[in-house]
Write a structure and sequence with these properties.
The chain is α/β, with parallel strands linked by helices. It has 18 helices and 7 strands. The strands form 2 sheets. Strands 5-4-3-6-7 form a 5-stranded mixed sheet, sandwiched between helices. A two-stranded antiparallel sheet has the order 1-2. A hairpin with a 6-residue loop joins β3 and β4. The longest helix is centred in the first third of the chain and has 12 residues.
Length: 405
């Protein structure tokens, strides 16, 4: 050891004994007792205890910076181990902050905060202590897998979820309905991820087909979304781009701004037009029995727009599809301006894109859409407008539109 006992034993005033403190901790890690380490370093035993445990008498004192080397994450595991928990307990006694402990461990502050909250030992009068070995035991008890699913253990919960799926509600809508229906029964509360995990099982045959029917997307397993292909402008008449759209349409504060698109049928031979109001998410479907050309789409839009009050039709936003080649004549007939999205930017019509995904549950891809009657389209739109929406505070689009009318 290259460190010698201090020859000067008098008080040092405000001088920081950084070298002595670092040597003290190195001796403690080698197994020396507090008294023996303090004797070697040349400090009082009480000073050593303060270095190790913090000044418990002064609760307002800030923690001294750690002189120990930064502890790297434990292997490649994302879980804390026993050594991590012992380090957390030591630094908590030294009054270190959660963020400081996380930085020293190479972890996220939320990881350390969650660890302390979940595995601490609560005492009387709101006091708590973090004991690393008890925390490790609690973590080990929670780790065994697989765990029984909450939905499979409750018949009432399972029946409620099944009823929601039969009504073509999303898992998130079902979970919100559970909290509103059973506000005082936490055993009936689940998050939507629990419902998804109950549905996406490794099934075969009929079970896989049942999962496909239950999910709006028709998928039997999760897969990332793909970005749409770029579309080039196809119009001889100049387009007014979405950047020129009024600000009131962007923040959805004023109703009457609509988004539109087509969903295409088998071999591109048939289509259904979709319109979504940005403020209320109200859906209207265009019947296109004679094709999806520019004139057919224009006539269907004119007929639909004229059924609405003037204050509820202020603008229309569309992509750069060829079906809107007659956008100027549409504007002349209805006095409704048309704004076009940038190429390959479907998020600029987010409400409409989301609605088209919902409609695919009723009109699957690869099917002929020409066989659907006007009455059937109205029934599908009414069912969508009767669904509670999270973005509307769990009200339905029909209720929001009824308030405006």
């Amino acid at each position: 050891m290259d460190f010698r006992i201090r020859d000067i034993r008098t008080a040092q005033g405000p001088k920081k004994l950084l070298r002595e403190r670092e040597t003290y901790f190195r001796l403690m890690q080698q197994g020396f007792s507090n008294e023996h380490a303090c004797q070697i370093v040349g400090v009082n035993a009480k000073t050593g205890r303060r270095w190790r445990n913090g000044r418990s008498a002064d609760r307002k004192q800030k923690a001294a910076p750690s002189v120990r080397p930064v502890v790297p994450p434990s292997g490649t595991s994302r879980y804390l181990d026993e050594a991590d928990r012992i380090y957390i307990a030591d630094r908590l006694r030294e009054k270190a902050s959660v963020r400081a402990i996380a930085a020293e461990l190479g972890r996220s502050p939320s990881t350390v905060s969650r660890e302390i909250r979940r595995n601490r030992t609560n005492g009387t009068r709101g006091l708590w202590h973090y004991r690393p070995y008890a925390a490790q035991a609690r973590a080990d008890a929670r780790r065994p897998r697989p765990k029984p699913g909450k939905i499979s253990q409750s018949l009432a919960l399972r029946d409620f979820v099944q009823a929601g799926l039969d009504r073509r509600w999303s898992p998130e809508q079902i979970c919100q309905a559970l909290r509103m229906t059973f506000p005082d029964r936490p055993e009936m509360h689940v998050v939507h991820e629990t419902v998804y995990q109950a549905l996406y099982v490794q099934g075969r045959g009929e079970l896989r087909r049942e999962v496909a029917r239950a999910m709006r997307s028709g998928r039997t397993r999760r897969k990332p979304q793909r970005q749409a292909n770029c579309r080039q402008p196809r119009f001889k008449d100049p387009m007014v781009m979405i950047s020129d759209r009024p600000a009131e349409a962007e923040d959805r504060a004023v109703p009457g701004h609509w988004e539109g698109d087509l969903i295409i049928g088998k071999d591109g031979a048939s289509a259904i037009g979709t319109l979504v109001e940005r403020a209320t998410r109200y859906v209207m479907l265009l019947h296109l029995p004679d094709g999806r050309g520019a004139e057919e789409v224009r006539d269907a839009l004119v007929t639909t727009v004229k059924t609405l009050p003037g204050h509820l039709v202020r603008s229309l936003t569309w992509d750069q599809g060829s079906e809107m080649a007659s956008h100027v004549s549409f504007t002349v007939a209805t006095d409704v301006p048309v704004y076009f999205c940038d190429p390959a930017s479907p998020w600029q019509r987010g409400s409409n894109e989301n609605t088209n995904g919902l409609l695919r549950q009723y009109f699957p891809k690869g099917t002929d859409l020409a066989g659907h009657s006007r009455e059937h389209l109205d029934a599908v739109a009414a069912e969508l407008n009767g669904r509670p929406r999270k973005t509307l505070g769990w009200e339905t689009p029909a209720e929001r539109l009824r308030q405006l009318l």
